[in-house]
Amino acid sequence: MRVRRAAVLGGGPGGLYVARLLKLAQPWCDVVVHEQGEPDKTFGFGVGLAAGTQRKLEAADADTLRDLVAAGHRHDMTMVVDGRTARVHNDRLIGIARTELLAVLQRHAEKAGVRIEYGTRRSAGEFDADIVIAADGVSSATRSAGEFGETTELGRGLFLWCGAEFALPDALFVPVRTEHGVFVTHAYPYSGGRSTFLIETDEQTWRSAGFDRSPEPAQPEDSDETSLRYLEEVFASELRGHALIGNRTRWTRFRTVRCARWSHGRTVLLGDAAHTAHFSIGSGTKLAMEDAIGLVEALAEEPDVEAAFARYETTRRPSVERMQELARRSRLWWESFPSRLDIPVERLMVAYMTRAGNVPLDRFAATSPDVVATALEQYAGAAPPAADLVDWVLEQPLRHGKTEFPHRILRHVPDGLALTTFAENLADPWDEAGDDLIARAREARRDGADGFRFTGLTDRPALLTRLDLAERVRSEVGGLIVVNGPASLRADLAAGLVSGRCDLVSLTEEDV
Predict the structure, then answer these.
(1) Pairing relation of β-strands 194-201 and 403-405?
(2) How many other C-beta atoms lie within 10 A of the C-beta of residue 417?
(3) Euclidean distance between CA atoms 352 and 434, whole angstroms
(4) β 30-35/5-9 pair status
(5) Residues 257-277: what's their mean pLDDT?
(6) How many helices (H) and strands (E) does the chain have?
(7) In angstroms, rounded to a whole number, what is the distance separating the alpha carbons of residues 506 and 483?
(8) How far is CA 120 from CA 11, 220, 430, in A?
(9) Which domains does the chain have, with CATH numbers?
(10) Nearest to 185 by CA among 176, 425, 357, 384
(11) In 3D, which of 298, 286, 314 has the Cα closest to residue 22?
(12) Could you tell me what percentage of the chain is helix, strand and coil, using 3-state DSSP and rounding each to the nearest 5?
């Protein structure tokens, strides 16, 4: 499709990047970015760019990526729990200041011939353009005013973004117990000698600390100073004497946005305007910039607007929905994170890496052999082999109370062991249906049940959720926990054992 005029709403990473790529692909096109804010007045701290995203940006626009990498800060990742540390290597992960990210993208967009207009709020219907690209963020006015079939899911946990004026040596995941409950920071360094501190907690802790009664900041640009000063004391060790910096910093809940349609007429949504994925696994910047690549390719390869927008959505939606599902699982894991603090930090790191089913146990072992070897020795009481880890995990013996099991695959229930079976297929183990199951499990234990066996659908998403449900029962109710699944998903079952989600596994009859 030959595009003569294109209007881009939003001067964030997605808007600037799609404008540049479109101008490079179709130099005759008049591309204008309309950003309601003023230049150099962005808010936010650091942005992470993972290795996979960097590869895609390099293929699409190597010049821009080169400047982003040069401005970024590489770092590894460390988890610290009660003074114990687990560190994993990840030298392709970079953090970059959001201000620097936007400066690089703005410079490259203008170099390509894109015009950028600041300071005026515009709407999609105002433009005499062939296409309008709405990259106007999670609170997109374009999406709200259009016919895109928007739905929003609100997370249970609360979080805020802040920063500090020093660069951490690694990304940090640190939970801290307080008199009010547990606060967790996800902190990482970025360019300019600064670090992002993302801090989250559950609602009970948030209320117990009195944050529900804190005065509202007077102006939209103000931060919640009461919370910042409190959290400085909580994370004093990690801050090393530095203060927490706010930038419109307030407690909020994550909004997962989904749209039934990403386009309507000549208007198309991009990035957070079309979809969001939880920050613990899905970067809005990543998804927006990859959307930009897909949209510009579709515009080049299709004859008209309708066909191009349809191709863009057809191409991008599977990847986005996969990321949203991974992010949903990750969000649920982090919202329930304090329940896991009794297991060793190395096993907790394995649980973290395998929480969404995106990183298999053997792949994690290949990149972080020391951490995984320690976790496996904690699990089994014996040093693991160099290969065939999944089979080794399943073959380890278990002593539970007075009962001994020769390996972790339960083929028959020993005499005298009473297991209650739950054949539940829940979407969220921590919702009201999950609460009801916890109540039934407690009643079963009072009635003499020694433990529980969890079974259900044999597809992978169902098994991953079943492992989460089993973990919740194991933590809150206790007893011997057995999770059933197909032999084809042995790797997921093995990861569940090492992560403390269950004690034993069983295999479906057709797979034994």
Answers:
(1) unpaired
(2) 17
(3) 21
(4) parallel
(5) 97
(6) 17, 23
(7) 6
(8) 12, 18, 43
(9) 5-42+98-151+255-332 (3.50.50.60), 158-239 (3.30.9.20), 344-511 (no CATH)
(10) 176
(11) 298
(12) 40, 20, 35
Collapse the DSSP code of 192 into the 3-class scheme (helix H, G, I; strand E, B; otherwise coil) and give the result. Answer: coil
Residue 436 is encoded by which pair of tokens? 């009801």
Tokens 């059933």 correspond to 484
Lookup: tokens for 337: 């994170």
Q: How far apart are CA 195 and CA 197, in angstroms?
A: 6
> Measured on CA atoms in the order 250, 256, 260, 263, is the torsion positive or negative?
positive
CB 203 within 8 A of CB 339: no
Task: Examine the pLDDT at 512 and tell me if it is beyond 70.
Answer: no
- CA 93 to chain centroid, in Å, comes to 15
For residue 201, which amino acid is it?
T
Distance CA 220, CA 378 (A): 49
Measured in residues, the chain has a length of: 512
pLDDT tens-digit readout, 322-374: 999 999 999 999 999 999 999 999 999 999 999 999 899 999 999 999 999 99
SS3 of 182, please? strand
pLDDT score at 191: 77
Query: What confidence tier does 37 reach under pLDDT thresholds 50, 70, 90?
Result: confident
Alpha-carbon distances, residue 431 vs 169, 234, 300 (angstroms): 38, 29, 45
Q: What is the pLDDT of residues 64-111, one digit of tens each?
A: 999 999 998 888 899 999 999 999 987 678 889 899 999 999 999 999
pTM: 0.94
Q: How far apart are CA 280 and CA 211, in angstroms?
A: 23
Characterize the bridge pairing of strands 5-9 and 131-134.
parallel
Region 430-451 average pLDDT: 97
Q: 418: alpha, beta or left, given left = phi > 0 and alpha = psi -120 to 50?
A: beta
Give the residue from 11, 72, 9 showing the smallest Cα distance to 40.
Answer: 11
